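Long-time lurker, first post. I've been practising inverse folding by hand and with some scripts of my own, and I keep getting stuck on stretches where the structure tokens seem ambiguous. Below is the full token string for one chain I'm working on. Before anyone asks, I'm not after the true native sequence, just a reasonable design that respects the backbone. If someone could post their per-position residues I'd love to compare against what I wrote down in my notebook.
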């Protein structure tokens, strides 16, 4: 199997075409499965602008999509298809994820970055200010909380306000992961939280409060495992340009996150089948 943008688009169409997508009215000149495949191509290429992508895709995939929708139609229909995109991604992750090890982490996503956005933006009442320790700055936006397996396959995710802690979202994500061992960073310290997860059949492992010669090897192993989910988030935010999402509404942001997670999961599936490193996604950027 060849790792390429063409293979990724074909895989996206096949998986999307196997999902029953209720749609009122006539079918239209481009099907929902084709739209999802287009969305996957856009995420893999890393072009946030719908208008720019629709102008470029004809050169990258000549003859693949005889009828391209207008920018407004493409944007509107993809937002409506967000639940189906998420459903397809979770089906693929269920096929690909393995083992009983799960990794959890969260990342901030800025939205509506302009003066007065707290009151005038469509995100008002949904987004909030959160502190990004990596950049030493406050971000007005949302927090993406992600759950992956040991190689970085996304098996669950949710979106909360940037000022919310990750305890409760992660607990909810692990309700279907009974029997797993959860690897998380020091932000998840707490005996009461560990006991709550234990009631769900989940054992949490976090870094020790103090590092010594006796636990050095264990701490290094945990740090290597946490790098896996950090690499997955980096794929989303850097290669797929999630930080430059251009979403104007919460629904638009949800659609753009689901779109990128589907492209990421499909790329990992193709890499696994072709014996390539799971998170090596450069081959799918259309260059």
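-- Answer (accepted) --
I ran through it position by position. Result:
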């Amino acid at each position: 199997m060849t790792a390429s943008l063409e293979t990724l688009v074909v895989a996206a169409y096949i998986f999307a075409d196997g999902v029953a997508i209720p749609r009122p009215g006539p079918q239209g000149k481009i099907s929902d499965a084709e739209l999802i495949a287009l969305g996957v191509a856009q995420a893999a290429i890393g072009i946030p602008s719908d208008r720019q992508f629709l102008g470029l895709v004809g050169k990258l995939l000549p003859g693949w999509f005889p009828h391209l929708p207008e920018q407004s139609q493409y944007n509107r229909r993809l937002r409506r298809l967000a639940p189906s995109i998420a459903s397809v991604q979770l089906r693929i992750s269920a096929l690909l994820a393995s083992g009983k090890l799960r990794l959890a982490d969260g990342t901030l996503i800025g939205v509506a970055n302009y003066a007065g956005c707290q009151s005038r933006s469509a995100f008002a009442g949904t987004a909030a200010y959160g502190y990004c320790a990596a950049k030493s700055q406050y971000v007005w936006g949302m927090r993406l909380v992600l759950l992956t397996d040991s190689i970085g396959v996304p098996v669950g995710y949710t979106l909360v306000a940037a000022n919310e802690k990750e305890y409760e979202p992660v607990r909810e994500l692990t309700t279907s992961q009974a029997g797993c061992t959860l690897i998380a960073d020091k932000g998840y310290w707490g005996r009461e939280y560990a006991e709550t997860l234990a009631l769900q059949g989940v054992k949490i492992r976090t870094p020790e409060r103090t590092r010594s010669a006796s636990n050095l090897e264990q701490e290094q192993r945990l740090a290597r495992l946490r790098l896996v989910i950090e690499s997955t988030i980096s794929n989303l935010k850097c290669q797929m340009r999630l930080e430059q999402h251009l979403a104007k509404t919460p629904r638009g942001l949800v659609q753009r996150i689901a779109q990128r997670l589907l492209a990421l999961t499909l790329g990992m599936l193709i890499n696994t089948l072709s014996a390539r490193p799971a998170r090596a996604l450069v081959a799918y950027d259309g260059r």
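A couple of notes from the structure itself: The mean pLDDT is 89. Strands lie at 101-110, 128-132, 137-148, 154-161, 181-183, 203-205. Happy to go over any region you disagree with.
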